[in-house]
Write a structure and sequence with these properties.
Layout (H helix, E strand, L loop, with lengths): L6 H9 L3 H11 L9 E5 L22 H11 L5 E5 L6 E3 L10 H9 L9 E2 L7 E4 L5 E3 L8 E5 L1
Length: 158
């Protein structure tokens, strides 16, 4: 990867080494020096795509069943944390606090089946000002509520 970093991109990569980001990641993972594995930028689409669906950031063929994944987190702690740091006001992300420690409730499942593009019981909308960030674990139930053409720039990685 070092051959892909030049003078123009170095500042973007260094962002992940800021003490508030790197230090927080290390503390949450309970390691002295957390490694960065992903560096992305989420931008608004050219055309309005409407809201995303409620989901957990897991790709089943490469993950344990959700219950096993959650049990491992509860026993051993998180192994990965994911960040959204916004460059403009952003209220797109909704999360269900505590859902990283449990499977979906019957009420959540019913709402997601009825309309996967609207809030679920207990869902909380994040309202981030420019420069604010939110950090979470992959199995948290979350939703991108507004993928419109409204300007969005969110540094995303883990």
């Amino acid at each position: 990867m070092s051959t892909l970093i030049d003078e123009q991109s170095a500042k973007a990569v260094e962002t992940w080494l800021f003490p508030k980001i790197h230090g927080t990641s290390s503390a949450l993972l309970d390691v002295p020096d957390a490694a960065e594995t992903e560096m992305m930028l989420m931008c608004n689409p050219v055309h309005d795509h409407g809201p995303a669906r409620w989901h957990r950031d897991m790709y089943p063929p490469y993950c344990a069943p959700l219950r096993g994944y959650i049990d491992d987190i509860l026993e051993n702690g998180p192994r990965y944390v994911q960040w959204n740091i916004t460059l403009y006001y952003d209220d797109t992300l909704w999360v269900v606090p505590g859902s990283h420690k449990r499977i979906n409730t019957p009420e959540e499942d019913a709402q997601i089946l009825e309309d996967p593009h609207s809030p679920v019981p207990g869902g909380v909308q994040t309202r981030l000002k420019a420069g604010d960030g939110v950090v979470y674990m992959l199995p948290i139930l979350h939703w991108g509520s507004n993928y419109s053409a409204k300007k969005r720039r969110c540094i995303h990685g883990g």
